[in-house]
Specification:
The structure is a homodimer of 368-residue chains.
Chain A lengths: L1 E5 H11 L14 E6 L3 E7 L3 E8 L1 E4 L2 E5 H10 L4 E6 L4 E6 L2 E6 L18 E4 H9 L16 E17 L2 E21 H10 L7 E6 L3 E6 L2 E6 L18 E6 H12 L10 E6 L2 E8 L2 E8 L1 E4 L2 E5 L1 H9 L5 E6 L6 E4 L5 E5 L8
Antiparallel strand pairs in A: 1-5, 1-7, 2-3, 2-6, 3-4, 4-15, 7-8, 8-9, 10-13, 11-12, 12-24, 13-14, 14-15, 16-20, 16-22, 17-18, 17-21, 18-19, 22-23, 23-24
Chain lengths: 368, 368
């Protein structure tokens, strides 16, 4: 194989495919990126067996071929090369020479026969939305995906399409995050549970522009995201997602309207007194149009007050302050509505159109 | 004690004194910052027994007094307070209330009687230079201070004043860094070995402006840095510093003049192939007006070339690439001069005025 391409295009491509290279693995071929030519250019591919990514780089092909190179070293080298044309040449024994201006690197490559190519999946009926929307949806829900949970389903997010509505749901044992968006077109009902880790990596390489679109194909075992010159294939998580509809009560005894920025600042201050792993709640004490916050820990105590609007009863209720912050940080509205029933019942933060619904379980109030 | 001060002034003061709060200590009082009033305002003080810092904050004193507060928590709280006036009030039992707008924190303070005040040292004959110059001197030499060396003297830097010259020297087993600057005034000869750690912390809080000055007082056991509203006291390291003059030969067989930016880029690329702890040298092979660099490691190999100016013999010599990079990064000149004798002898990078002299020992060339 011998190809010539620009250092910057190659770097962009590597930045994309490196997202599916595992940090730790016992199979050293998974640490490699496949470079393979076709008549139009160069394909880069990576695959950690859960998530696979392929992207294309414009290149002049002088001799067709393929080679696998250690992703970390190859990426580091390209990053440090001058911004000029890069030549990559491999001989029959897979010795690979990477040269740019007067810098020449020699690495030992591996055969593409060892590489796990992405599965060949028939693609039809894509769901289409803007890359930015998908990126936002992930950012706004991924924080409540369970990490390392015994229940595999909780380590993924439900992506559900119904007509012109797309819904994403994540949950752990203490909270549920739901986002709804409207699609331009209408689609037959379909759903999939996508691993949270895959969604996190995909969000990193999606474009920030409204105009750029992503096509999502859901098949029996995989979900394929196609955007720009890139194809991402994620395995799906087997199983049934939780029926969360029954949790979503719309009854409430207290409704608060709070200015988000001030609320975040108060909770941020309360968190100062909580060490990692400590379970001290922030107590919200609503009396008339006043929200009083307090936090007591071994380190000291904090009290704060916010002016709010209230409908319904006064209430005193405790929360893990980090769960509140996680939700508040991903809501774009300047004012938020908080719905509560009593000290033991789930609390909801949602907008009137229900484009977002966040449920958080309260924690027991400390004895004082 | 009851005082009122602006949150921003308090934050600046805490940023300064926090540099002498140890990360780990068995003496919990060292983790505290002392707040003490006098008739004009508030003094903040910290002391890890090697390094002590005191700075002043403008404040309205309502009731004079003193209290010690845990540095980490207090700093975090002030950072998160609104940008407004902060009131700090302590009662007889040292319960401390920190309030700002509607936020109120309560912490348990400790008595100033437990605190180790800075030693009361008679100050005379300060050496005066600009804060920026001192900051630069530290940055340009601190990388070759030995860390955790058995030889205590090597964990410090020699600061030596002679007439209107100030010299700073650091060294580890493989290299020596020397910087010389001219002072505005002339002083009697004096010298001190200052702990590298103290210098590193002082450099962080020195001003970036040419105009602001620092006064340095050297006494038998301490070095005092006075600048702005801040006083830093560092213990000195006992002992005799190395006589490095005998190492500083001016004979050479080869002199290279190299464009620094290109040289850094080449060495940066060579380092890609060296893992932390690995001792692979970068080999410099000088032939006529060409400097060829090569690096061979288990990961692969690199070759690169630079056009240079040369006086004297061709040479082939190996270096730890990180030692070269450390020096190149702190030299401001666009071209550097490198002086060498042979493969085994120290190499010097210095300017003609000897405002800087860096010595690096070569490493054995690998068998190839």
């Amino acid at each position: 194989m011998k190809i010539v391409c620009s250092r910057n295009s190659l770097l962009s491509g590597l930045n994309i495919v490196s997202k599916a290279v595992p940090n730790k693995t016992t199979m050293s071929i998974l640490e490699c990126i496949l470079l393979e030519t076709d008549k139009d250019g160069l394909t880069l591919m990576s695959n950690d067996m859960e998530l696979g990514i392929e992207t294309r780089v414009e290149a002049r092909i002088e001799t067709p071929g393929a080679v696998c190179l250690n992703a970390a070293i190859f990426f580091d080298i390209v990053r440090k090369l001058p911004e000029n044309d890069v030549t990559i040449e491999t001989d029959a024994s897979l010795k690979t020479v990477i040269s740019c201006e007067r810098a020449v690197f020699r690495l030992m490559g591996r055969s593409n026969e060892e590489f796990s190519y992405l599965p060949d999946i028939e693609k039809f009926d894509p769901v289409i939305l803007s890359q930015l929307t998908l990126k936002d949806l992930v950012r706004q829900t991924i924080f409540s995906v369970s990490v390392n949970d015994n229940n595999k389903v909780m380590t993924g997010e439900l992506l559900e399409v119904n007509g012109d509505r797309l819904k994403m749901i994540s949950l752990d044992g203490h909270r549920v995050s739901i986002r709804n968006v409207e699609l331009k077109n209408s689609y037959p009902a379909k759903k999939a549970i996508i691993p949270g880790k895959a969604l996190g990596e995909i969000a990193k390489i999606l474009d920030d522009s409204e105009d750029a679109e992503v096509m999502i194909y859901i098949t029996g075992k995989h979900c394929i995201f196609e955007f720009g010159e890139t194809i991402v294939v994620s395995r799906l998580i087997d199983g049934e997602f939780f029926k969360i509809e029954q949790l979503l009560s719309t009854d409430y005894e207290t409704k608060l309207t709070i200015r988000k920025k001030e609320f975040i600042e108060c909770i941020d201050r309360a968190i100062l007194l909580v060490r990692e792993g400590d379970k001290k709640p922030v107590v919200l004490d609503v009396q008339d149009e006043e929200l009083r916050l307090r936090m007591n820990s071994n380190m000291g105590s904090m009290n704060d007050e916010l002016s709010i609007s209230k409908q319904g009863k006064d209430i005193q209720i405790g929360f893990n302050p980090r769960f509140l912050i996680d939700v508040l940080r991903v809501i774009d509205d300047e004012e938020i509505d908080v719905y509560m029933v009593n000290q033991k019942a789930p609390c909801f933060i949602k907008d009137s159109a229900e484009s977002y619904i966040y449920m958080i379980l309260p924690v027991n109030l400390p004895m004082e």
